[in-house]
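BUG-307 | component: ligand-complex export | severity: low

The export step for magnesium ion jobs runs without errors, but we want the raw record kept on the ticket for reference. Input record follows.
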Amino acid sequence: MNTPDQTGAAGSSPAGGGVLVLEGAAVAVGARTLWSGFDLHVGGGEFVAVLGPNGVGKSTLLQVILGTVPPSAGSVRVLGGPPGSANDRIGYLPQRRGFDPSVRIRGVDLVRLGLTGTRFGVSVPLRPAARRRRREDEDRVASVIERVGAAAYADRAIGHLSGGEQQRLLIAQALVRRPELLLLDEPLDSLDLPNQAAVASLIGSICCDEGVSVVIVAHDVNPILPYLNRVVYIGTAGVASGPPEEVITSATLSRLYGTPVEVLHSAGGRLVVVGQPDAPGHHHGHHGGLIDGDHSAPADENGGGAW
Ligand SMILES: Nc1ncnc2c1ncn2[C@@H]1O[C@H](COP(=O)(O)OP(=O)(O)O)[C@@H](O)[C@H]1O
Ligand SMILES: [Mg+2]
């Protein structure tokens, strides 16, 4: 795992201010405050997980970082500026589920869209002067597809690929512009356990090897636990951040939920949270659920998110 000193990526933000800094931040949707008193500092090359039950505002946190939802209090700085000012240096993978089998776009085209596509809502006509850049773009698309291990199937229609294959290509799309900060919203949620482990390891190595800071929203902390520098846990009654072993404890989570919650450590080192209530306003969540997910349950198509 990297420190800012090892990667130098923190130098991209003035005065070593950190890739992402929230101080006393709060967010509200309508009259309802989702979270408040949110302090977070993410340095270059750090890997941070955002955990918590459905409906507490994890996806909304990513929208605040992207500048599409304003904080209702406190300050938020992203890559040295206000949210939204450096989005071309951020890779974002929204919360979503698999592509419909009827989606015909090829994997390689999906990745290329990260460079050229709908990003600014403008299609740029190819002029002779742009030809060399196009060659570089194609090289970049090929190398990022290689990096995520998708070369064998990138020419196939995305709708015909498995969930794990789709997720690798979406990560490639988010990486193709060499972001300094990667925001991933539940990228493991629709995957089986071996694919969760493989994609978590891929994200961990991208963070570590390339000094990309990663903020990952996760329903299950266990697949990413080996790679994490820090977790942010949004409970129904508060927010805490720190090293996983300090935040994911019975005492801290009981405070964040305002009710007794127990953290169990399985023999294999997995963390299981028992007894957490659901977020207010959320009606189809994981009552008494596990932080490591109930993998026997049918997939929740929307993950409870509004995005
Ligand atoms: N644009 C919006 N307008 C009103 N309510 C919203 C909007 N976006 C999200 N919400 C509500 O805010 C809460 C948090 O949503 P979200 O950030 O998606 O939670 P999470 O990602 O933790 O499951 C939910 O109750 C959701 O319905
Ligand atoms: Mg969400």
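Assignee comment: Attached the raw record above. The chain has one domain: 4-120+127-274.
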